[in-house]
Amino acid sequence: MEGIVEDYLKKMCVPCNDNGDKFIVTERILNIKNILRDTSYKILYEDNLCFLYGKKQIDISKNYILVSSHIDCLQNVSNFYKKNDNLYHGILDNAATNAAILSLMKEGKIDDNVLVVFTGDEEKNGNGARSVADWLNRKKISYFAIVLDVTSEGWQEGYNFTIENYFNSYDSKLKIAIEYLCKEYVKWVFIPSERGNTLKNICINLGENCAEWDEACDYADMGVDTFSICLPCSAQDDVCMHSNNGFDIRKSTLITYILVLERLLRKMAYEISIKKIRE
User: Fold this and answer.
1) Which of 223, 235, 236, 272 could be a cystine partner for 63, CB 3.0 to 4.6 Å?
2) Is the dihedral of CA 132, 42, 229, 64 positive or negative?
């Protein structure tokens, strides 16, 4: 797995820019489509700021998980290299979670009722996420969204991931997801939204800060139950997160993040296949 992930990480650590209406630098997009070319995945929906993958055509009678990983960044150069056996440098914004979900898709480790969307305009107005949510909502598809992103939280503490921007208007499968993650023997922390959303009746490690705005907020605005599972990185402020120098991630953290994501999606795919999302 490690060799494949590193190869994908390198291919994702290239600029991918948009102007709020469409992508204008597309090398990362081309790399994603090339990686998935000889798989069972097909593009089910595409517009100027998003492209949605699935293994089968969407069935309105079924429940789905939407995994969302933004590909736009503010960087315009690539400086990726391996610092040592456990540290990658020059990571561009959100390349690491792009590589994580691609590795699971390529290896066939995601169930048929999991859709994956790569989006743009996350840095400004969230129009990529809003576009795919609007498309699914108009089709009356039952789904919730899991957003993948990088975070400044948890790096110094050595956490393997964070859960951020949890928006759950129903006693739904999102609570089951969090309870399941609590059973994982890895270090993680919950970072609540600045809107005040939190988890009730679940024993969790609670962070001191409020989560930064990410695509989970955009999906929540579209009426979708959602949360973000984020990968800690060395960027401790917005300037470092978007610097052309890139930032660091730990290889061990990335590998653990991928394994946890695989288990989470498998668990949730099963849960939504036997029960309604909103009960």
Assistant:
1) 272
2) positive
CA distance 235 to 218: 23
Which amino acid is residue 186, in one-letter code?
A: V
Q: Which token pair is 188?
A: 């993680």
Contact 13, 246 (CB under 8 A): yes
Q: pLDDT tens digit string along 157-201? A: 999 999 999 888 765 666 777 777 777 767 888 888 877 566 665
Q: How far is C-alpha 75 from the chain's CA centre?
A: 19
pTM of the predicted model, to two decimals? 0.94
High-pLDDT (> 70) share of the chain, %: 92
Three-state SS letters, the chain: CHHHHHHHHHHHCCCCEECCCCEEECHHHHHHHHHCCCCCCEEEEEECCEEEEECCCCCCCCEEEEEEEECCCCCCCCCCEEEECCEEEEECCCHHHHHHHHHHHHCCCCCCCEEEEEECCCCCCCHHHHHHHHHHHHCCCEEEEEEEEEECCCCCCCCCEEEEEEECCCCCHHHHHHHHHHCCCCCEEEECECCCCCCCCCCCCECCCCECCCHHHHHHHCCCCEEEEEEECCCCCHHHHCCCCCEEEEHHHHHHHHHHHHHHHHHHHHHHHHCCCCC
**Distance, CA of 279 to CA of 272 (rounded, Å):** 11
